[in-house]
């Protein structure tokens, strides 16, 4: 019975919760579908309006409007209207608003003033194309049309306004074909809030002003949601979006709020009922389980003690099998207790205290650690004890008769009470010497490969400059001598033209060989040093790509070691490549500052920037996340020099790279 009651309680609660979540998801999906429909309709209507306006602007530039007789223009307008089924008429009005041409009447018929005077006055005031709202019933068309107007400007004169009357039925067809969610009603209103098209009751609502909630929402934001009232008086929820380049038109989709919220309300009733029933079942379950717990308590205590001893033994066996050492550091007593494996890894000289454990003084334990790592371990241990964070530190241990051995200590202080601090630390010690040796071998291999690559690039650059470059120079001189011989013997013009073409090609080959040699290994870096090499690099880069650059050296002017100068030059090269690819910058600044113990390089740009959280900074050892934006090569070079790279950037605020390379102290 207890199992049945326990199973029923979560089922009831889960059922109510699932019903609520599904109802809310259904509501959100319906609203999302309405948002998509509104966006789709907005884009389609805006595109249609833009297409009609473009055709009208082309017609406004026609030379037929410059003729005193509009017969040719009238024929062109009729052809254009036949090509655009949505156009009801094409109208040409003078600057006084009196119609000169209207395709609904013959060219010789007398015409009155234009119908939509507001949009006409807007064109006259701004001299720009204007999308009007739904106008009054035209005296000629007998319909309510939407006017699209463009000015006809000839120099400084402004003689006419060319307009088309757009049928509202086409806009309504777009609304009906938008695939809105079932039950949603679509409406398009103009900038004055008058209805242009509607999926229901279109004839009754066409041209009528919208309600106050719609107008307030449009004034508040170009898109979003608002609550309004339907024609029948019920509350509705409306999603709307303002159309682009239509003079303030907006599309609205509404559904009765009661229909949208009904599934959610029903799910709340189900959840409430399930909760009440679950409380009753829980009380019954407490009564059954309470009686059974009293009978089992004494037996369970004995089983817990046995299980604890078994767990400790299994943990010790597992640690030994994994070649791990366990320890307990009591900072209050100044004593460290650990397994035999931990004592071996940490180089203790202590006796066995029982249960295959050894104990030593904390001072003796620290004295076995390398002097360079001792302070770092002590600070990390104090930090873990102070804030309860997990400790993970790597350090070297001095063993008698052997080189220092790398080990790793991980662990934390036990959480006994939130308000009570403890002086105990429990940790696990592992041997990481093989991994450290592999990392050292890997770093040495990278260094040698890097040096071999630079040497090979230096050799190829010299071959290009000294041999191929001289050959091209000889070719250019030979062509020059040949030009003199041809000029002296009066050759045909085609021969001289061909010779000039060959001279141009030879010059381009020479320049390309020079650029290739400089890119492979700049001679200025070997001959003149880092300052001149970077100056040449930035000048050539700025001239080639049209981006301003600035170089600044701070500190001692004595040359750096060759491998550091090469690394800084290649890092600046890679940074400039990144700026060219991603930054869209107009200015780049490079600063090299030499300090007694390190060299700092700062590369800044005023480009678009980026989110540093989306470009995580990996550690030089490769333990961090994978770097992006082409920074992996920079990090590999810095890892060989124990350097560090820091990024500072934010979208729209440019980016800055801070490079730190330590320098060895002089003897």
Structural features, described:
The protein has 16 helices and 22 strands. The protein has a seven-stranded antiparallel β-sheet, sandwiched between helices. Strand 18, helix 15 and strand 19 form a beta-alpha-beta unit. About 2% of the residues have low confidence. The chain is an alpha+beta fold and 667 residues long. Helix 11 packs antiparallel against helix 12 and helix 15 runs antiparallel to helix 16.
Q: Which sequence of strands runs across the widest sheet?
A: 13-14-12-11-17-16-15
Main pleated sheet: 7 strands, antiparallel
Distance between termini? 84 Å
Helix segment count? 16
Number of strands: 22
Helix content: 40-55%
Label the overall shape. flat
- Write down the Rg: 42 Å
Determine the structural class based on helices, strands and strand pairing.
Answer: alpha+beta
The low-confidence runs, each spanning 5 or more residues with pLDDT under 50, are 617-629
Give the key terms:
flat; 5-stranded antiparallel sheet; single chain; 16 helices; 667 residues; alpha+beta; 7-stranded antiparallel sheet
What are the SSEs and their pairings?
Elements: H1 2-60, H2 71-83, E1 87-94, E2 99-102, H3 117-126, E3 130-137, E4 144-154, E5 157-166, H4 168-176, E6 185-189, E7 195-198, H5 202-205, H6 212-220, E8 223-229, E9 235-242, E10 250-256, H7 257-321, E11 325-330, E12 335-339, H8 340-346, E13 352-354, E14 357-361, H9 362-367, H10 371-387, E15 391-397, E16 405-412, E17 424-431, H11 433-488, H12 493-520, H13 523-527, H14 530-545, E18 548-554, H15 562-583, E19 587-594, E20 598-605, H16 632-640, E21 644-649, E22 655-662
Helix pairs in contact: 1-7, 11-12, 11-16, 14-15, 15-16
